[in-house]
Amino acid sequence: RRRIVYGDGRPTDGLGGQNGYGGQSVPSPGMVVPNACTLEAFVPASPKNIQLCTKVFPASPSVARSYALPLGVLVSPLAPTESGEPVPVVNFGSAGIVRCRRCRSYINFMCMFSDGGRRWRCSVCFFLNDTPADYFSPLDNESRRRDCAERPELCRGSVEFVAPAEYMVRPPMPPAYVFVLEVTSNAVSTGALYNMVQAIRDSLDVLPDDGRTKVGLITYDSAVHFHALPPGEDAEPSVIIVSDVKEMFLPSPENLVASLAECRPAFEKLLDRLPSMYPLANTQSAGVSSSALGPAVQGVSLLLERTGGKCMFLVCSRPTVGNGAIRDRASATLTKEKERALLNPENNFYKHTALEFSRNQICADVVFCPPPSVPFVDVATIAPIAKFTCGEVHHFPAFDAVRDAITLREAIKRDLARETGWEAVMRVRASRGVKCRDFYGRFFLRSTDLMSLPAVDADKTFAIKLDFDDSEISKKDFCVQSALLYTTSRGERRIRVNTIACPLTPNLAELFFHADPYATVAFMSRSITDGIRDRRVDQLRSSVSDALVTSLASYRKSVAKSMSNPSLMLPDSLTLLPALVAGLLKSPLFCMDTAGSFGLKPDDSAMLTHLTDVLSVASITASCYPTVITLFTMSEGPSKGLKGPNGTDVELPGAHDATLMALNPESVVLIDDGRSLLVWLGNTAGPVFCQQVMSHVNAGNSSIDLRQVSGLLCGSNPGGGKESPVLQRSREIIRWILDQRQPGTRLFITPQGGPLQARVEALLVEERTASESSYKEFMTTLQSKVGSKAGK
Fold first, then answer.
1. SS3 of 58, please?
2. How confident is the model at residue 287 (pLDDT cuts 50, 70, 90)?
3. CA terminus-to-terminus distance, the chain
4. Closest by CA position to 250, among listed 184, 314, 178, 298
């Protein structure tokens, strides 16, 4: 039986794939021999940083058209490598960075030296450049520089250059964080405000600590409250309230954004007092539920317009006051057509503000924590402020502090602690004859190919479609290079360069044999999700299935025509692609029974569209074919597993096929769909599992609160007692998986037959549902369509 393999999104050998999270990667058969160094010295870029949809590239547009599947590149410039080794840093000093004079690409392992080392040929546009005198080195008998092994830029796919002064338009900006917190009754009553404040308090020690970091805090309800943070050990914070929010202004120029090193005592006092400053009794009696989010956004813009920085918004209510107010457009009954309208913004205030943010190098994160009484805050309208500034979007609908507090706090801490590149821009270049056409991700496209990223981090992935510009590529190798110019949190201007190369082929068979199904379906998912706001779901589904049919028919006619077997024929490289495409079409956004199977509300669907913008190849793969593993069985207790991938000590259980056979009343099953985790409790095993999970905090009490179970599995230990082996083992597995996913990934607990049973069964993508065919039926239909098209 087939196995869907996860982890870093690459094919793995059979043993590595047994636990569903990858293992030892299969060497790419399409790897090129570097021109600038020996193969032994060459260290390619990690596929976590840059990855093509195919390991060879078509040499002409006609081959690409026959292939029919997407050709693109996925880039996560700051993602850590599997080994965890730092990217080598190169400082050219006064000589300046060596770049092509024509296309401005950076020197790399595919460049060729000639004329005794005095000239070098660009690997992207093939222009012959003069070698700077300070960079000259004689060549050996293989026409390689004698110092190539000592030059990271010539022997590594990923390298970082120290940017000289000409790469700066102003001094590097200091890291600045402004927290904008809603203080209405909706925020106070659920505990969202309290837990957000605690998350910020707990994260102060992970912020950059070189003395340059600045912080600020704004709160808002129907008015906007600016909190001043004076320096000094005995300093007291103060607040200035702007009640007239029609014309927003800064009430004071001093101490609204202050040095953390100087104002930390005042900032900590403010955080400690903040929840008690807005007690629930006061907000309820005053009827404080109106939200002036728009004016608060304008206040942040005024506050950071000169320095730039990151702002983080807590949103618990639909904005109703001042600029950016949103009308309630949710409907009790939703058709696919009405749902599509709700995926588009109700107004463009937040998008237009995002473009202003981008110009001023301001990044916006949005944390949605609406209470159960607020089913609609209009994520589709507000989230563009994060989308166009390379920000983060977290969504905790029906926020419950017992269930969601740990996930919220850890998401905020990870947001603030991870490697961040400030005031960044990124450009992707491809070999002459190929252009970067369509771009997917969170950014503002400043020109035809320059992405503006006010703050980029290790969890952001971008997808770029590659399309032919000329009739064909004349060289033998194809090269793609991404270059990210950014400022580190330490104030250093750097250029992170990731380069990947592969052979060109005029042979359609070679293209099929070296296709990457994981990167291909990840690109498909990005592409059709981007179109969901403008096109009907059935049109998007057809575009995906038609591309698959056309490609497989082309393979059957051109490559496999000599074979006598009439069954659907696939190259080994694409064996998993039909299963992944079938799962993509049954995923929440594209399933024809979204509301029934997944219970999605309009804000949930809008969140999924924004989440797909940043998901890695591995996460999208899991969203198309979820990983199903057993956590606990009545007969064996906590699951024993295989050694985890990439040398980790975590042992992961073997994965099941995504069928109903995986659900057994005497077991507890974990389902990872790349966006969330679900723990399914079998009728027999569930109560036993929960009692053992809670044994150290619930002694002598037979009642079980599934919200507490969720919190314990995510990592909290309120009782402080000795934990059971079941809890320790299950938490180890769940924590490891959460570390591979986006920050804020939620864990849900559902008993057999509970409210989420329909969602669990919908994630078992090989099964038939009320509106979708089974995988076997999908393959039968696919075989018929491929045979019909191939026969024409």
1. strand
2. very low
3. 32
4. 298
Q: What local confidence, expressed as pLDDT, does residue 73 receive?
A: 98
The 10s digit of each residue's pLDDT in 40-96 is 999 999 999 999 999 999 999 999 999 999 999 999 999 998 777 899 999 998 889
The partner residues of 225 in beta bridges, in order of sequence, read 219, 241
C-alpha–C-alpha distance, residues 509 and 67, integer Å: 9
Nearest 5°: phi and psi at 407? -65, -40
pLDDT digits (tens, 9 = 90+) for 233-261: 999 999 999 999 998 999 987 899 999 99
Longest dimension (CA), the chain: 86
Q: Cα–Cα distance between 413 and 428 in angstroms, integer?
A: 31
Strand bridging mode 493-505 / 158-162: antiparallel
> Rounded to the nearest 5 degrees, what angle is found at the Cα of 702, between the Cα atoms of 696 and 704?
75
What is the b/e burial string over 431-466, where b = at least 16 CB atoms within 10 angstroms of the residue's CB? Answer: bbbbbbeebbbbbbeeeebebbbbbbbbbbbbbbbb
Q: Give the 3-state secondary structure of 418-465.
A: CCEEEEEEEEEEECCCEEEEEEECCCEECCCCEEEEEEEECCCCEEEE
Helices (H) and strands (E) in the chain, counts: 24, 31
- The band of 598, judged by pLDDT with boundaries at 50, 70 and 90, is confident
Token readout for 373 is 């009484």
Burial profile 665-691: b = 16 or more Cβ within 10 angstroms, e = fewer: eebbbbbbbbbbbbbbbbeebbebbbb
> What is the per-residue pLDDT for 694?
87
Q: Looking at this protein, which amino acid is placed at residue 734?
A: I
Distance CA 216, CA 170 (A): 22
Q: Between these two residues, 457 and 9, which has the higher pLDDT value? A: 457
- What letter would DSSP give residue 695? T
Report strand pairing: 420-430 vs 477-487: antiparallel
For 7-37, give the DSSP string: SSSS-B-TTTTTTSS--SBPPPTTPPPPSSS
Q: How far apart are CA 621 and CA 523, in angstroms?
A: 10
Alpha carbons 2 and 718: distance in angstroms, whole number: 42
- Cα 303–Cα 256–Cα 222 angle in degrees, nearest 5: 75
**Which neighbouring-strand residues pair with 628?**
656, 671
Half-sphere exposure of 142 (CA within 13 A, CB side): 12
Pair of tokens at residue 160: 């970082």
Please state, in angstroms and rounded to a whole number, the distance separating the CA atoms of residues 681 and 752.
6
Helix 685-693, helix 706-714: angle, nearest 10: 60
Q: Kindly state the DSSP code that residue 295 receives in the 8-state scheme.
A: H
- Identify the pLDDT of residue 21: 62
Distances (CA, A) of 711 to 367, 413, 462, 686, 690: 19, 17, 32, 16, 12
Categorize the per-residue pLDDT at 168 as very low, low, confident or very high, splitting at 50, 70 and 90: confident
What tokens were used for 255?
């101490």
Give, to the nearest 10 degrees, the angle between helix 706-714 and helix 725-740. 70
pTM: 0.92
CA angle, 417 then 610 then 343, to 5°: 150
Alpha helices by DSSP H, listed for 150-225, are 152-155, 185-189, 192-203
Pick from 388, 387, 378: which is nearest to 358 by CA?
388
pLDDT recorded at residue 672: 96
